[in-house]
Design a protein that fits this description.
The protein is of the alpha+beta class. Helix content is 36%, strand content 22%. The chain contains 18 helices and 23 strands. The strands form 7 sheets. The protein has a 7-stranded mixed beta sheet. The structure holds adenosine-5'-diphosphate. Adenosine-5'-diphosphate binds at residues 11-13, 266-267, 311-312, 314-315, 327-328, 330-331, 411-413, 415-416.
Length: 519
């Protein structure tokens, strides 16, 4: 009798395997971090071989702790960091280059070229097809970079020897046998982040692939999020669910009705609003993306507000500034003052994502006076996450024409109660954290379990979802709007920073880093 589901969460900083029970509770966990490789300023890579090794290891850890036989596993579900691109040789199973991670900005020249030379003008060139603006964030331009820059890659790709995939594809191909008959697939949610998928037909767009010089033979088959794709050769268990991490969290948060939304607070923040079977085009800087598709059922779409830097600002204060020793300590600092002392931090470290999509913005701390101290800085750092979320929520309200009644939250930062209260205050709506905050892995487990009949359908997910904690707004309307207006003003101070001089300065940093590495 199968009593459990195994979820694999191939994340940005680590890979985890979690065994879930039928009640949606965590039974056991295996987790391992992988190396973040920064070859130059703005470049971020992972070693795909390390990711695959870690995947096997964490599965072993979770199953070992669970002390169950393989036959007790009903299915395997997979969720993953989205957009991160892997290109490998199908004959040898070897990646031709490291995985280029979603945060990597090396494709900025490529996207400006694709936009016809001016990103302000041409960013929306493919938006009608794929729902996304041209940005360094998405996978397609990363694949183009590999084909353009790795010796021999383009010839091999054109000969049909190379495969592309996001990390779900890479893991599934390896799990199902790799060079010995591995299946080369992805799901609609991951495919919707490449810029290469047509949102309406849910198939690859030849037009975009051709514009980016990507041979169609490299692309994985696009499947639904919940169906049997193949079997793990090692475990003999069906792989039956795939969702990109943010969509998996939306699924795990049981946001199945049009108008429901969740916000995940991790390295960055990602808010998704279920827009039902309708494709809503954003007028306010949001992305149009797939929410999920269960087997043969109609696809469900979402609007997404992606914020590049939230939790990673806390990491920056820890690692680069030394303000804190560990992330939770920021709350101790911030609670020693009642407000931000007039100080705002806009963490536009690599430009601004939603709702601005400005490549040329750079971070700023504004409103400094002799009065401001480290407690205000800590507070301003936390508040920046809440303000950025408000901007995305406002955009969602504007696009959808309805005001969201409450916000379901998850991710590492939601442990911070000060932030959650401030979030409710600045939004003016309730913020709700579920009991099981591991919504990402849980979502993938549900998708897989539904495909094999372990769960009957989404109603089981709704029934299992339980409220953990709720924060209600306590701040007055006038105060809320005054603070928010100041935030908006602070944001404008980051615009148009990157010009020729700033570019030269960034190049000098790159050179110095290169020399330091060589020496
Ligand atoms: P990801 O899945 O993107 O790797 P997580 O959901 O694990 O991220 O969240 C980790 C992020 O949350 C880190 O960037 C960390 O700085 C931040 N974080 C963790 N705990 C706290 C806390 N108590 N207060 C503020 N930020 C926190």
């Amino acid at each position: 009798m199968a009593d459990y589901i195994l979820a694999i969460d191939q994340g940005t900083t680590s890979t985890r395997a979690i065994v879930f029970t039928h009640g949606g509770e965590i039974h056991t966990v295996g987790q391992k971090e992988h190396e973040q490789i920064f070859p130059k300023a703005g470049w971020v890579e992972h070693d795909p071989a390390e990711i695959w090794d870690n995947t096997r290891e964490v599965i072993g850890t979770a199953l070992g702790k669970a002390n169950i036989s393989n036959s007790q596993l009903a299915a395997i579900g997979i969720t993953n960091q989205r957009e991160t691109a892997v290109v490998w040789d199908k004959n040898t199973g070897e990646p031709v280059y490291n995985a280029i991670v979603w945060q990597d900005t090396r494709t900025s020249k490529i996207i400006t070229e694709l936009a016809g030379g001016d990103l302000e003008e041409g960013a929306d060139r493919f938006k009608d097809i794929c729902g996304l603006p041209l940005a360094t964030y998405f996978s397609g331009p990363k694949v183009k970079w590999i084909l353009d820059n790795v010796e021999g890659a383009r010839e091999k790709a054109e000969a049909g020897d190379l495969l592309f995939g996001t990390t779900d594809s890479w893991v599934v191909w390896n799990l199902t046998g790799g060079t010995e008959g591995g299946v080369h697939i992805t799901d609609v949610t991951n495919a919707s982040r490449t810029m290469l998928m047509d949102l309406k037909t849910l198939s690859w767009s030849e037009e975009v692939a051709e514009a980016m010089g990507i041979p169609m033979s490299m692309l994985p088959e696009i499947r639904s999020c919940s169906e049997v794709y193949g079997e793990s050769t090692k475990l003999g268990v069906p792989i039956a669910g795939i969702l990109g991490d943010q969509q998996a969290a939306t699924f795990g948060q049981a946001c199945f009705e049009k108008g429901m939304s969740k916000n995940t607070y991790g390295t960055g923040n990602f808010m998704l609003l279920n827009t039902g079977t309708e494709i809503v085009r954003s007028e306010n800087g949001l992305l149009t993306t797939l929410c999920y598709k269960i087997g043969e059922e109609e696809a469900v779409y979402a609007l997404e507000g992606s914020i590049a830097v939230t939790g990673s600002l806390v990491q920056w204060l820890r690692d680069n500034i030394g303000l804190i020793q560990d992330a939770p300590e920021i709350e101790d600092l911030a609670t020693q003052v009642d407000d931000n002392g007039g100080c705002y931090i806009v963490p536009a470290f690599s430009g601004l994502f939603a709702p601005y999509w400005k490549d040329d913005a750079r971070g700023a701390i504004v409103g400094l006076t002799r009065y401001v101290n480290k407690h205000h800085i800590a507070r301003a750092a936390l508040e920046s996450t809440a303000y950025q979320t408000r901007e995305v929520l406002d955009a969602m309200n504007a696009d959808s024409g309805v005001d969201l009644p409450e916000l379901r939250v998850d991710g590492g930062m939601v442990a911070n109660e000060t932030l959650m209260q401030f979030q409710a205050d600045i939004l003016g709506v309730d913020v709700v954290r579920p009991k099981v905050a591991e919504t990402t892995a849980l979502g993938a487990a549900y998708a897989a379990g539904i495909a094999v009949g372990f769960w009957e359908g989404v109603q089981d997910v709704v029934d299992n979802w339980e409220e953990g904690q709720r924060w209600s707004p306590q701040m007055g309307e006038e105060e809320r709007e005054r603070l928010y207006r100041q935030w908006k003003k602070a944001v404008t101070r980051t615009f148009d920073w990157v010009d020729e001089d700033a570019e030269r300065a960034e190049e000098a940093v790159e050179e110095a880093e290169g020399e330091a590495q060589d020496g």
